[in-house]
Amino acid sequence: MTPAPHPQNASPAGETVVVGLSGGVDSAVAALRLLEQGYDVHGLFMKNWEEDDDADYCAAAADLADARAVAEHLGIRLHTANFAAEYWDRVFTHFLAEYRAGRTPNPDVLCNREIKFQAFLDHALWLGADRIATGHYARLALDEDGARLHLCADPDKDQTYFLYLLNQEQLRHSRFPLADLTKAEVRRIARHAGLANAAKKDSTGICFIGERRFRDFLARYLPPTPGPIETPEGRVLGEHRGVAYYTIGQRQGLGIGGLADGDEAPWFVARKEPVRNALIVVQGGEHPLLMSHEVEGTQLHWIAGHPPGPLPYPCRARLRHRQALQDCQLLSYDGSTCRVAFEHPQRAVTPGQSIVLYRDDECLGGAVIAQAA
Q1: Catalytic residue, candidates 152, 207, 315, 328
Q2: How far is CA 12 from CA 34, 40, 257, 269, in A?
Q3: Which residue among 111, 152, 338, 363 is the active-site one?
Q4: Please, what is the average pLDDT of the chain?
């Protein structure tokens, strides 16, 4: 691809912005808003997964067609880039290694750091852009202390949980044009602007892999390894397909009923033991083995580049996307690990997922959950 030249006539904002156009309504409205603000806007469609032979999941072509329609409607140039190799090397190999180890990773978090805000950023700068923009629901503040990431206006759509691994360089080059909008307002703007994807359904699949049966997809790379489903006391209740296919707190798909001499309360996954290849289950969604007061994290990252303050540090946290912020205290940290105590017990804390820390509405950073107690 030949790099795009810098615009001959500078825009009122004096900057060229490349928007990651996915084909969805969020990125389309992000591009529209930047145009209205006077930026010189380009779009870039990222292909980050090589499609397989299953036509049901070959959504990339349709998404590209939608992105092209948006770019044509807005009158902006659309670039394309294939980051499939980067995604495989930087995200997917880690994803598989975590599942093999019995943990449940969050590929969207790593994808944002390595692909959407690194490979994409590098490519956009090569094209001649000053910065990039996406349709993420988050708010960015820039001041003399650097870049700060804050909650957006729509609590149901806030995506700061997925952005906590971004660093100062990535954030300084980024824009989030949807920060002050709700999803309903985004769709209303899209309809008013005549965008054909105004009513397009939101994607809910794994980052760049799509909306497919996850267990079937994972089985292509991690073959089934059957083992026992046990109670904490060691009573065998059935057989699982492989601990990689289950997550803490899972209820569906266990294939076991009530005990003959017990009640009919539903069973939940409480623990995975990959060394023994055993799945430990308990009855009742509030069973003590499902509840935790403390979390230990690893791969600790601070957005500001340094810890927030002296210990113990009162803050709030999320253990999963869309969870209400939970009161907690940061008890300890070093260069890569931390320990957090919650005011109220947390259910189904899952190793491999992330604990993301907040001060008021500012996202401070976070860590990968190593274990809970």
Answers
A1: 207
A2: 11, 9, 65, 56
A3: 111
A4: 91
